Amino acid sequence: MTYLAVFEGKGGRSVDRSVLARALRSDWPGAEVLVSSDDGPGHEVRDVTWLYEEAGDRLEGCSHVDGTCLYLEGPLHLAVRFAVWYRRLVPSAEELILCDDSYGFDVTVREASPESVERAVRATW
């Protein structure tokens, strides 16, 4: 399933791709991280892409080029962990929303445990 962790970026706020790539490499050392080139395929939409595997589960992620959204393809528990982790990179004045790609649910991600965010998501289904 595809999930999004998104914020509006009021006033031009975003997460810079170099900050995201550095944080991914530091905090998720098992992830394969790729920063797109300015002329590579998909550069108009995708900025940083990564693949993370854990205990047989796989999450593919990418950031939107505007720095205000992550696309997370994989199991809910890994998408939630990445969204909670991403919260600390998002400017504090911004509200971070986790939703599915059909907007069937949306949950505000605060400085919380992944378990509490996952419970909130499941309560909306």
Give the topology, please.
Elements: E1 2-6, H1 17-27, E2 32-35, E3 46-54, E4 57-64, E5 69-73, H2 76-87, E6 96-100, E7 106-109, H3 114-124
Antiparallel strand pairs: 1-5, 1-6, 2-3, 3-4, 4-5, 6-7
Largest sheet composition: 7 strands, antiparallel
- What portion of the residues fall into strands of 2 or more residues? 25-35%
User: What percent of the residues sit in helical stretches (DSSP H or I)?
Assistant: 25-40%
How many beta strands in the DSSP annotation?
7
Strand order of the largest sheet: 2-3-4-5-1-6-7
Elements, N to C (H/E): EHEEEEHEEH
Structural class: alpha+beta
Shape: globular
DSSP helical segment count: 3
For the termini, the CA-CA separation is: 14 Å
Describe the fold and architecture.
It is a single chain. With 125 residues, this protein is an alpha+beta fold. Helix content is 27%, strand content 32%. It is built from 3 helices and 7 strands; from the N terminus they run βαββββαββα. It has helices spanning 17-27, 76-87, 114-124, and strands spanning 2-6, 32-35, 46-54, 57-64, 69-73, 96-100, 106-109. It has a 7-stranded antiparallel beta sheet with strand order 2-3-4-5-1-6-7, with helices on one face. Helix 2 (76-87) crosses helix 3. The longest helix is centred in the middle third of the chain and has 12 residues, at 76-87. The model has no long low-confidence stretch (mean pLDDT 90).
Write a concise keyword list for the protein shown above:
single chain; globular; seven-stranded antiparallel sheet; 125 residues; alpha+beta
